[in-house]
Amino acid sequence: MGQFAEQVVNGLQLGFVYALIAVGYTMVYGIIKLINFAHGDVIMVGAFVTFFGLVRGIPWPAAILTGMATCALLGVVIERLAYRPLRVKGAPRIAALITAIGVSLFLENFASLRIAFGPDHRQFPAMVTRLQWNVFGVTISSVQVLIAGVTIVLVLILQLVVYRTKIGKAMRAVALDLDAARLMGINVDRVIAFTFAIGSALAAAAGALWAAAYPQIWPYMGIPPGLKAFTAAVLGGIGSIPGALLGAVLMGQAEVLTAAYITTDFRDAVAFALLILVLLVRPAGLLGKAGPEKV
User: Fold this and answer.
1) What topology is assigned to 1-119+140-281 in CATH?
2) Other C-beta atoms lying within 10 Å of the C-beta of residue 177
3) For 156-201, what is each residue's pLDDT tens digit?
4) What positions belong to coiled-coil segments (predicted)?
């Protein structure tokens, strides 16, 4: 029983990281119906910026905040240069999707250049002293506490922003009906840019936490967690923030429990099979709302 509980804790650790990434996917999709495939690479940028802060002796909270601020700016730049021109011209959705893939490839290849981060793997420094505690027979590490604490705080802040602020109210209005929101005087472009900033900042935090748990970073490190988090967002119902959180936790549990009790070779297969099974029953995802078009 104790071993099972430890695996559940490990699944929560993985799920919390996925949750921060999945929320970014689902917020952007909820606002402008775009699958931002470059989101996974923002994770990598956030991890590298945090890394450079840590190696220069900056305390880890400040290093993560620096990474979040940098990626928030990066998200706004990506939206302004790559997606907004297509939206203004009324380009087909497939054009925006292909552009997102192009932005993703650009970030990965640019980061691999020597003038940027370089192609080599780097050892990510420990953000907290690695300790372990035994809580009712379950071993919990300091890294797991760090990941859970940072994730819960950021999700609570996000909830406050979305449901208790004027910009959050505008975000919900734009997600409900973009044209009607514009007619009501809401600056839609500013709301969309703010959404990209928040989603990218959360992705940066996820990148730092991912690196804290699996302490190596490289330019293509954002692909696996980005893909899994996107799958989690679809599983929970893309466009729904609670759905993204639920999907992420389920995805983390599916991966970890499969690796622990079946085999690590099947962990990805079982996670994606779970997605297929859920979508066969609920095509809009667990907490998603049925609509004429989702992806």
Assistant:
1) ABC transporter involved in vitamin B12 uptake, BtuC (1.10.3470)
2) 11
3) 999 999 999 999 999 999 988 888 999 999 999 999 999 999 999 9
4) none
